[in-house]
Amino acid sequence: MRPGEWTVAQVVDHVSQSTVRSVEELRHLRAGRRPPGPPVYEALLSGAAHRVPWAELVEGLREANAALDATLGEPAESGTSPAVTAPAILVVAGPEAGSAPVIFAAELTWPEYALVQRLHFLDHRAQVRALRAALAAVA
Question: What's the predicted TM-score (pTM) here?
Answer without folding.
Answer: 0.89
